[in-house]
Design a protein that fits this description.
This protein is an all-alpha fold and 280 residues long. The protein is 67% helix and 2% strand. It has a two-stranded antiparallel ribbon.
Length: 280
């Protein structure tokens, strides 16, 4: 869609409603056949009657819009706002007579949902959620319900702020806005930053929630040397939890071991290590 196209027939209030419906119902009726396709089409209900108003074949063309957008679709919900905004803009301009093939609208969705899912899942699931959960869980463990409400508030704010922002970005500028972001390396920079932040977050989670202490003491005639207190705590704080975590990661990533097997292995090693005094 070119930048010269400035005519709009969809009221802004209907667009806000469509964006809200998309985010609120993005995972409703989630199924193996269409994934998020049903929710995508459902969100278009807010604007469907604004399209083809003066067209004698309006009913038939609106049916085609809904059928076209019921196709298989799956991506990260908030970043999917970029695709939904572009789809709304393309459908609107098509209804105004622009030469936009049906295949173009479908190809925009199918070509972008994969890359945006990878970017969105990394940023949201691997960075944002662990950070917010770590903060809110720590507050809650201190006996305050503020952590529960803070988590809800931060999540609710993030979800709709990202959705509305991404939706209006591509609705106003078209699908080219997404390709520009991809080509300019903006998302790559965000991902690099997310990876670094993810390492910091995982380090903090390991230090706070993974507990592993050495119970071996070296006894001499004059003193008792605690390996945990005199060596690990003094020179390598939290080194054992880090090693245990990296071992689990290695078993999953390199040895392709099942998580249930790893859990049973952890239980067995913990019991044996505790009985022998290796761990405390």
């Amino acid at each position: 869609m070119s930048e010269r196209t400035v005519k709009h027939v969809i009221p802004k209030s209907h667009l806000w409603k469509a964006s809200f419906l998309y985010e609120s119902h993005s995972l409703s009726c989630y199924n193996y056949e269409r994934m998020m396709g049903t929710a995508f089409a459902h969100a278009l209900r807010a604007i469907i009657y604004d399209l083809y108003k003066d067209d004698p074949d309006a009913e038939e063309k609106r049916h085609a819009v809904m059928k076209r957008n019921l196709e298989f679709y799956n991506t990260e919900p908030e970043f999917g706002g970029l695709i939904f905004g572009a789809a709304c803009a393309l459908e609107e301009q098509k209804s105004l007579g622009e030469d936009i093939p049906d295949e173009l609208i479908s190809s925009v969705k199918t070509s972008l949902m994969g890359p945006l899912a990878g970017i969105g899942d990394t940023i949201v699931q691997a960075v944002w959620n662990p950070i917010v959960l770590a903060i809110c869980i720590d507050i809650t463990l201190q006996g305050s319900l503020l952590g529960v409400f803070l988590h809800y508030l931060l999540t609710f704010t993030r979800v709709y702020a990202m959705q509305f922002g991404f939706f209006w970005l591509t609705y106003n500028k078209g699908s080219e806005a997404i390709f520009d972001l991809l080509q300019n390396g903006v998302f790559d920079k965000i991902l690099d930053g997310a990876k670094v932040m993810g390492c910091f977050v995982m380090g903090g989670l390991i230090a706070n929630f993974v507990k592993l202490n050495c119970g071996i003491n070296i006894v001499t005639q004059n003193a008792t040397f605690s390996i945990q207190e005199k060596l690990f705590d003094a020179v390598f704080p939290k080194i054992l939890p880090l090693c245990a975590t990296m071992l689990v990661y290695w078993l999953i990533d390199k040895k392709k071991m099942k998580t249930t097997t790893i859990l049973l292995l952890i239980v067995a090693v913990s019991v044996v290590g505790g009985l022998l005094g290796i761990f405390k």
